[in-house]
Amino acid sequence: MRLLLVEDDPMIGETVLDLLREDGYAVDWVRDGAMAETAALDQDYDLILLDLGLPRKDGLDVLRELRTRKCRSPILIASARDAVQQRIAGLDAGADDYIVKPYDLDELLARIRALIRRAAGRAESVYEHGNVRINTNTKEVTVENEPVTISAREWAVLEALLARPGLILSRAQIEEKLFAWKDEISSNAVEVYIHGLRKKLGADLIQTVRGMGYLIPKVKP
Ligand code: CA
User: Fold this and answer.
1) pLDDT digit string (tens) for 101-116?
2) Domain count for the chain
3) pLDDT value at residue 186
4) Structural domain ending residue among the three candidates 57, 88, 119
5) What CATH number should be reported for the domain holding residue 53?
6) Residue 171 placed within a domain
7) How far is the CA of 20 from the centre of ligand 1 (A)?
8) What's the 98 CA to ligand 1 centre distance in angstroms?
């Protein structure tokens, strides 16, 4: 999952950046509204965490511009406790949810997970296929009820595929979810992680669609 963090306060920015990375997200951090707009229109983020008080361009203006220009990423706005009118304006302008600053970091993570789930059209946080069970909230993965340890990057690949079961993702699309701007990408990284996942979860969960990419099958209702 690739997130855009828009925050001009360096202390909050660094704290949140570390937190999100520890939680396995690939994160790009920008510190003003103009940069936020450029980044969000350039890249298909799984979520944008948007501070409203920003230099160069106000967060609300950024939000309106993004929605006008058909940016569909879920947007979580962050605002000061007393800024009720600002939050209302934000929701009306197309924000999906808001969080009040200073926010609790666990609450922030939970809201991010909920918005990503909702964007994927999933109310459920558990995916089951054969004897594999994956909880995307707790990141617990079991095979025949035995816990399996998955590395952070393998998890990022798995999560990208789980976001839209039944939909094919190309290698480039998975790479985008995996790596933020400054990270290095080795050319066969995605294959390596998928190979690792298949060893742990069995060969039939992640399917190769020749010449197109990979998918995880839809759960039968
Ligand atoms: Ca600010």
Assistant:
1) 999 999 999 999 999 9
2) 2
3) 75
4) 119
5) 3.40.50.2300
6) yes
7) 18
8) 14
In this prediction, what percent of the chain has a pLDDT beyond 90? 71
- Name the burial class of residue 138, with classes exposed (0-12), middle (13-18) and buried (19+) by CB atoms within 10 angstroms of its CB: exposed
Using a CB cutoff of 5 Å, list residues around ligand 1, an ion.
Answer: 8, 51, 53
> Hey, which bits of the chain come out as E strands?
2-6, 26-30, 47-51, 75-80, 97-101, 126-129, 132-135, 140-143, 146-147, 207-209, 213-215
Domain boundary among the residues 59, 87, 119 is at 119
- Is the bond preceding 102 in cis, omega lying within 30 degrees of 0? yes
Q: How far apart are the CA of 118 and the centre of ligand 1, in A?
A: 27
Same domain, 7 and 106: yes
Residue 185 lies in a domain: yes
